[in-house]
Amino acid sequence: MASIEKIPPQVEAKYRKFIQARELLEKVAQERALLEASLAEIDAIIEELNSLPEDSEIYKMKGIVLVKSNKEAVLKELNSKKESIELKLMALRKQEESLQKEVERLGKELNQLLAKGTGGAPVGGAG
């Protein structure tokens, strides 16, 4: 029967940090993707509104009700929303970049710890 070695606490702690950082990176990437989709949708709506004559009847959703509005007010609201999303995206991209570097760093450190612990033998190698 093969002997089972206990994982050193240092390796276990590093692994937990690595997993947490990777999960957070995935969450931030998903949030960024959703915001990018929202931004693309807003850009498409703004483009469509800009192609309409100034006196066009415009309706927008307020809860479950459609409300008549004017083109200028809707464009102003959309541009404000677009600016807010762009700021959030900028922050998320920076956070995502930082987390990506952290995940890479922790992964390298973890691999180094594992290599030391196995005498340099590849993990999962023949024993």
Helix content: over 70%
Order of helices and strands: HEEH
Please give the number of β-strands: 2
* Largest sheet entry: 2 strands, antiparallel
Q: Under the CATH scheme, which architecture would be assigned?
A: Orthogonal Bundle
> Uncertain spans, ≥5 residues at pLDDT below 50?
121-127
Average pLDDT: 89
Q: The CATH topology is what?
A: Helix Hairpins
Helical segment count:
2
Number of domains: 1
Main-sheet strand order equals 1-2
CATH class: Mainly Alpha
**Fraction of residues in β-strands:** 5-15%
| End-to-end Cα distance | 12 Å
- Radius of gyration (CA) equals 25 Å
What would you call the quaternary organization?
single chain
Structural class: mainly alpha
Task: Please specify the SSE layout and strand pairing.
Blueprint: H1 9-50, E1 58-62, E2 65-69, H2 71-117
Antiparallel strand pairs: 1-2
Describe this protein's structure.
By secondary structure, the protein is mainly alpha-helical. It has a single domain, classed as Helix Hairpins, CATH 1.10.287.370. It has 2 helices and 2 strands. The chain has helices at 9-50, 71-117; strands at residues 58-62, 65-69. The chain has a two-stranded antiparallel sheet. Helix 1 (9-50) runs antiparallel to helix 2 (71-117). The chain is rod-shaped. Residues 121-127 have low confidence and may be disordered.
